Amino acid sequence: MPGCPHCPHCHPHGLTRVKLRVLRRLAEGQDTAEIARHLRITRQAVKNHLSGIYRVLGVSCAVEAILEAERRGIVAFPDALPGVITLPPFERWMLGQMATGRTYREIARRCGKSESTVKNYGQCVLKALGVHSRCAAVVLGRRYGYL
């Protein structure tokens, strides 16, 4: 029956309504706790929905899910915001690496710096963008035109 709430084949892109809501909130930069609070479900339920989203989109992390969802037209980012935030070149590069879903260890290997140095740069990116997660940094980086 079309439109049934629990049947993925009834929904665009193979995602249930709740999974779409979780994905959209994730794309807005919300973390698991915020999504759970807004949707009035448990954090574990959000994590379960995220696992299902990753499976359907064929990705392994939140950043990849957001970018794949944008590519498929499931979520859309607004045009770039006015340039209020300025990131130095290496931090912009770091943001791009974060957007690929690479770990700090993998990024450190790519740039020849220590993992702790890379983590510090990552924290500088988060602080400059005023966010608390890599996923939110990538979302905001897209909105500011850095990615």
Walk me through the structure:
This protein is an all-alpha fold. It has 2 domains: 8-71, Winged helix-like DNA-binding domain superfamily/Winged helix DNA-binding domain (Arc Repressor Mutant, subunit A, Orthogonal Bundle); 89-143, Arc Repressor Mutant, subunit A. Helix content is 60%, strand content 0%. The chain contains 8 helices and no strands. It has helices at residues 17-27, 32-39, 43-57, 62-71, 89-99, 104-111, 115-129, 134-143. It is elongated and about 45 Å long. It starts with 16 loop residues before the first helix and ends with a helix.
Q: How is this fold's topology laid out?
A:
Blueprint: H1 17-27, H2 32-39, H3 43-57, H4 62-71, H5 89-99, H6 104-111, H7 115-129, H8 134-143
Quick gist of this model?
By secondary structure, the protein is an all-alpha fold. It has helices at residues 17-27, 32-39, 43-57, 62-71, 89-99, 104-111, 115-129, 134-143.
Task: Based on the model shown, name its key terms.
mainly alpha; Arc Repressor Mutant, subunit A; 8 helices; 0% strand
Radius of gyration: 16 Å
Mean pLDDT value: 83
**Beta strand count:** 0
Note the total helix count: 8
Which range best describes the helical content: under 10%, 10-25%, 25-40%, 40-55%, 55-70% or over 70%?
Answer: 55-70%
CATH homologous superfamily label of the largest domain? Winged helix-like DNA-binding domain superfamily/Winged helix DNA-binding domain
CATH hierarchy: architecture of the largest domain? Orthogonal Bundle
Name the CATH class of the largest domain: Mainly Alpha
Largest sheet: none
Question: The CATH topology of the largest domain, please?
Answer: Arc Repressor Mutant, subunit A
CA-to-CA gap between the ends?
Answer: 40 Å
Structural class: mainly alpha
Low-confidence blocks of residues: none
Q: What general form does the structure show?
A: elongated
Order of helices and strands: HHHHHHHH
Report strand %: under 5%
Provide the number of structural domains.
Answer: 2
